[in-house]
Amino acid sequence: MLKKLKSLFIVEDDDSKATGNPKAAQTEKKEFEKQKKTQASIKVDTTPIPKGEGKPDEKFVNRLLEALEEANLEGFDYLEYKQSLQSIDDMNMDEATMFKSSLAMAKTMGATPEKLMSSAQHYINVLQKEEKKFQDALGNQQQKVVAGRQQTIAKMEEGIAAKEAKIEELKAEIIKNKEALDATKKAAENDASKIHLTKTGFYAAYHIVVDQIKADLEKMKKHF
Question: Where are the domains positioned within the chain?
């Protein structure tokens, strides 16, 4: 039954199975690249995606059709009417003729326009319930996975910011230490200069006195 339902609603082609959108295969790669660039800040949005965007996932197609199968009404209803429409689709009839011809056959099976339309609405309601389940599951996924990732990202960003602040603090300390080092070097140079000046003054005096004594000593040796 599931395979029959799929043949009623899904047109398969070589490029992209289980899709009625011929551009889906082309847009899928672009969407993947877009998601790769934004995955660090991705947030799941449970609002419905506009028709014509994205590529249908076969597992979701199967789940929706299973939901229709599980909710299949007794007797000849919209699903059987849909099947009869498909069976005459290749007879080159205009749309109005196709729908009226299928209705005529449906009436022989006990169906009425009201029953067919109400059953079609019934299946829409079934699918909308499945949409609600999906949105709830998507919200839970956001809470458990995406929100958790975002918390991790926030902590990592805080850690990086703290390290960057520490780096700036260390840079300021390095600058301060370099300034202190330069001042100490200059002080050392001044001290060395003063010491050298003191040394020079001492030896200048020393040589004056010593040289005189030495000169006198030589004279004493000569004359004594």
Answer: 2-168
